[in-house]
Amino acid sequence: MTEHALLLSDVHLSDERPAQVQRFLDTLAGPARAAGQLFILGDLFEYWVGDDDRTSSLANTVMQAIAALARTGCAVALTHGNRDFLIGEAFAAQAGIRLLDDPVCLPVGGQDTILMHGDLLCTDDTGYLAFRSQVRQPAWQVQFLAQPIEVRHGIARGATAESGRAKAAKSEDIMDVTEQAVVEVFRRFACDRLIHGHTHRPGHHVHTVDGHPCQRWVLPDWYQTGGYLLAQGDRVEAVHFSA
């Protein structure tokens, strides 16, 4: 029988939320150990200022826990989110994870599946997409990473606060995916299953693309409770934590 995959996103790990950190560690030590694959689809951390940051024990704790899971034979892969896009090869190597393109189509639990963080599907949110384009530029990242760690933390905290203010001023529709973007991704990969996070609107949606039904699963965020998906073949099960 094909091994199942566990998928999660938007964990937003932070020293300020120790309960969520423990829940993530428990997931790695429990349900993930029974899976053949673990996919982390972005925003594992509340923010990430570079692999050279040694000011917090959180990163090292998480890295060691993921590495311990990888040593059991579970294949761990990570897609960058809008908060942790600076996770690099050094962290990936130490944690035993594979960094994925966004989007990408891979066998997930034995079935080809499109994996994304999900922000690229929110094409009405033009202000955010402009910011995303800027910070994904290699020149911008080199300049940012050249600054002292404490300066980077200050910039990241400011950007996080500004993101919260910007979201409060936007309509709910602008921050959700657009049908056109979803359909284009299904057509691009000729695949009928898509899993993503980012919107913090967990659910299951069916899109008709060129006469064919396509499944879209949205992962929950972990700010309050959280959860994950289990995928095996064409079966997908949503697991939500209790409060």
Task: Describe what this molecule looks like in 3D.
The chain has 7 helices and 11 strands. The chain has 243 residues and is an alpha/beta fold. It has a 6-stranded mixed β-sheet with strand order 4-3-2-1-10-11. Strands 5-6-7-9-8 form a 5-stranded mixed β-sheet, with helices on one face. α1 runs parallel beside α2. The chain is globular and about 55 Å long. The model has no long low-confidence stretch (mean pLDDT 94).
Write the layout of secondary structure elements.
Elements: E1 5-8, H1 18-29, E2 37-41, H2 57-71, E3 75-79, H3 89-95, E4 97-100, E5 104-108, E6 111-115, H4 126-135, H5 138-145, H6 149-169, H7 179-189, E7 193-196, E8 203-209, E9 212-218, E10 227-232, E11 235-240
Parallel strand pairs: 1-2, 2-3, 3-4, 6-7, 7-9
Antiparallel strand pairs: 1-10, 5-6, 8-9, 10-11
Helix pairs in contact: 1-2
Give me the side-by-side strand order of the main sheet.
Answer: 4-3-2-1-10-11
CATH superfamily: Metallo-dependent phosphatases
Low-confidence stretches: none
Strand content: 15-25%
> Termini, distance in Å?
33 Å
Number of strands: 11
- Global mean pLDDT: 94
